[in-house]
């Protein structure tokens, strides 16, 4: 068996054990790869869900970049569970995608939030003065690294690190995507909170040339999400809808990897509970995430 449920938040060990369980139990559908190790030597594990058809397009999903955003790994593991358990009855579009899912991109930070500092955001990089630790992994990616909204101060919650991809967590993801033979077309990065669907650019109040395509798919996703429980997700370019912040995974996916569809999803809620979202909202948040994944698959397969 496995230790996962979607009525409580789980620690890193449970999530990793669950991924290994899936690879063992569904060897024709699931495989797990350790793409690197965190600063504190925890594994960075990616689950691939695929019917093995070499003509498939691929989607990259990361979650848990920010340690305290517990709903992100929880919702994404819900998506995994749903896809695997109901694979045969899923839409042809969903089955024609290779899903590459990283539920906990910041395992050290995630473990730290379970050890008492519930609101920790960054990774656990030790700074020389030892007063302030951590790099914001969503400021450490290489597209326009160090620009607006990214700090040079180690004590800042948005410290960008010493250079682009200075952190093993971002470097492992970059190396994996760059070397992977998969046909990646889209990237989803799950965060909380605020209920937003954001697309590039994040580094400035600018939009890419094909922003209308990104906006259209995002609005389809927001409509599908609204059908789950009536929640409203605001759609727009990250830099002007939220705030400019350089070095994010979404800008890297679009700007460096050249994946057409790249989104950051800020899950529930709108601030009532914030990062401390009650566990009884995991399933609905998971359904909202799944709704987005299905809309994306439909658009990719019928492109
Ligand atoms: O600031 C962030 O990294 C994200 N918001 S959060 O509250 N989860 O920290 C938003 C990132 C949006 N994308 C970019 N600015 N590139
Ligand atoms: Zn976040």
From TrEMBL:
The keyword Disulfide bond applies. Transmembrane segments: none annotated. Its cofactor is Zn(2+). One of its GO terms (cellular component) is extracellular space. The active site is at residue 266. Keywords: Carboxypeptidase, Disulfide bond, Hydrolase, Metal-binding, Metalloprotease, Protease, Secreted, Signal, Zinc. GO terms for biological process: proteolysis. This is Peptidase M14 domain-containing protein.
